[in-house]
Amino acid sequence: MRHHTRTISGHHNRGTSTSSVHAEGASVRRSWTLDKPQSLTGLALRSSTRQHHQSILKRLDMERDLRTGQPEESEWREVRQMWEDKLAPIPHGLIESNISDSSRSFLTKVGLPTGCPLLVTFYHDERLLQSISAGGTDYLVMGDDYGTMLGLKGGTDELWAVDPSGNLAATFVNSRICDFVLFLALYEARYESRLPQASTEETEAIIEHLRRHFDSCDRRALEDVDHWWSSVLGDIVRELT
């Protein structure tokens, strides 16, 4: 059974207390760190050379923004509106130097949510300096989903779910980290908040609305039945039957 099914069922299991879920999640992350030390890089902040490098990158970011007029700002407006005060910008010192300009800009100016649906946890500390390898590809870790690590694929803006045990193939999540943050907010607002009162017909309509909205923002997210969001929405539909 794929990890997404575990995520959905764990999320809607009303018999499981919040404290036990959090405790189990912490255990999963601790065991992953201990069992797979060879797949991590840069677990601690590096030397003054690295800090100097980061200060240069920050200055270059500021200069680029002055030249370009910050074209991304309008694109991020919906993310800010949906999450309101639940976004925490990431300090430059916690972002690897080889991350793309667009991802770096989003992380430092908008940030990542401090709490998410679907048991997703974004990191806001030195864990962002980790990387994990799968199939010969490196991924810069952004967080986890209580089963897999969520990371930016090296050399791209794409977010993938990577099994730390190496037993499952990496799964495409979104074309950009900002798309994933937006999708989580849409899922929480359009589906999760209405779940207790929704009938089967209403739930099906909500899922269809989510699919259309997702397609308009990031068509690749639902392009394949094995993609992360396809699995999430598919599990919800299967639970209705």
Number of domains: 1
**How many helix segments?**
8
Structural category is alpha+beta
Distance between the termini: 18 Å
The level of helicity is 40-55%
> Beta-strand level of the residues, as a percent range?
5-15%
Radius of gyration: 18 Å
Counted beta strands = 8
Cα shape: globular
Which stretches are low in confidence, meaning pLDDT under 50 for 5 or more residues running? 1-45, 65-69
Order of helix and strand elements from N to C terminus: HHHHEHEEEEEEEHHH
Largest sheet: 6 strands, antiparallel
What is the residue-averaged pLDDT? 79
Task: Provide a concise account of the structure shown.
This protein is α+β, with helices and mostly antiparallel strands and 241 residues long. The protein has helices at residues 3-12, 18-35, 48-68, 72-83, 101-109, 177-190, 200-217, 228-240, and strands spanning 87-88, 112-113, 121-122, 131-134, 137-144, 149-153, 159-162, 171-174. A hairpin with an 8-residue loop joins strand 7 and strand 8.
